[in-house]
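As the next step, I needed to go through one protein, both as residues and as discrete backbone shape codes, included below for the reader:
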Amino acid sequence: MVPRNGYLYLAILAAFLALGVIVLGAYVRLSQAGLGCPDWPGCYGHMTVPQSHAAIASADAQYAGRPLQPVRAWKEMIHRYFAGSLAVLILILAVIAWWRRRRYSQPVLLPSLALLTVIFQALLGMWTVTLLLFPPMVMGHLLGGYATFALLVLLVLQSGGYLRVGEAGTKLLRWMAALALLVLVCQIALGGWTSSNYAGIACPDFPTCQGQWWPPMDFRNAFAWHGLGPDYQGGILGDPARVAIHVTHRLGALATFVIVITTGLLCLIKGRKPAIQWLGVLAGILVTCQVGIGISMVHWGLPLALTDAHTGVAALLLATVVSLNWALWAKSVSS
């Protein structure tokens, strides 16, 4: 039987693995390897990338429109291996929680939600490939990864008894933290929409866009349903629609920055425990770094290292804001 602290260590491992899967998934998507394997869960009918001449010839014949590119295929499969390992680890956490729920009063809600989320996440991963990078699926897959990570962060806090600091803030602070979380989730979704529609390159300058403060934009097509069937790799939207998405993402980043910084300042002023104050400071640092990375991405033409870091810092910021809400709301919710 897994000891109590062993369960905590498993939850911590799962949280770190989820963070790695998010960053690795962004790397796969940003390096144009999202369709490196056109089928699922294998790759050209194999559980590894075909390597022999016969297997490669068979793969190319079976998927004539998508000849095998081993480098891209291996990127995609390595991401799937890590995601599969995470799913197994979450399953183990859920099974242990249900096994120990009576004897040790082990909570089962968070591990159960994490298991359901990762199962749905696997389906989204399959649909992302089979629907040829359909933007709503790509965005949903990204959100599913962040949701899984957030649930595992909460599981770590719950299992370790961390940040149970009681009445650590005012009502205003609690609601500002909740608002910060809501706005951050919306901005992450908007970031996924920007990436899945290849709109990151629509504005190559900052703070203007294509040399204008308000360039021609097509909001109608930017956020419309364009249907299943087309191959969305590389994007299908015109330049005005991509500009509309990019500018909206910038405005969302500004709103997120203001709200998170305001929440962080309130933590310093109204937080009644050092943990709340430190979480507010950390949130402020991370959101500032995130904005700085975003500006640098535009300035340097979206280098892969910076765009991947943008995804990773967003995950760390989400973990911080989720932890802040846990600390501020846990006692109120339980009571």
About this structure: The chain has a mean pLDDT of 92. The CA atoms of residues 24 and 231 lie 23 Å apart. The two ends are 32 Å apart (CA to CA). Residues 1-162 form one domain.
